[in-house]
Amino acid sequence: MFHQKLTYIHNNPVEAGFVEKAEDWLYSSAGNFYGKNGLIELSYII
After folding, report:
1. Per-domain residue ranges for the chain?
2. Do 30 and 23 contact (CB within 8 A), yes or no?
3. Which pLDDT score, from 0 to 100, does residue 46 have?
4. 3-state helix, strand, coil in the chain (%, to 5)
5. pTM score, two decimals?
6. Phi, psi at residue 32, to the nearest 5°?
7. Could you tell me if 13 and 25 are in contact, meaning their C-beta atoms sit under 8 angstroms apart?
């Protein structure tokens, strides 16, 4: 369920037509999942 909701949130800027890929949205943590650095450092507890 967590991954489903996270994917939905990450894809909002794509669906709105702001970017072509979720990881390109500056204010999203999606880039962190693709090995890019975001605006803040994230640590995950799963």
Report:
1. 2-34
2. yes
3. 63
4. 50, 0, 50
5. 0.72
6. -60, -30
7. yes
Q: Are 21 and 14 in contact (CB under 8 A)?
A: yes
Q: Which two tokens stand for residue 43?
A: 């640590």
Q: Where are the alpha helices (DSSP H) in 1-46?
A: 2-15
pLDDT (0 to 100) of residue 8:
92
Taking residue 30's Cβ as centre, other Cβ atoms within 10 Å add up to 23
Q: Which residue has the tokens 């390109």?
A: 24
**Residue 36 tokens, joined:** 């890019």
For the stretch 1-46, pLDDT in tens is 988 998 899 999 999 999 999 999 988 888 888 888 777 777 767 6
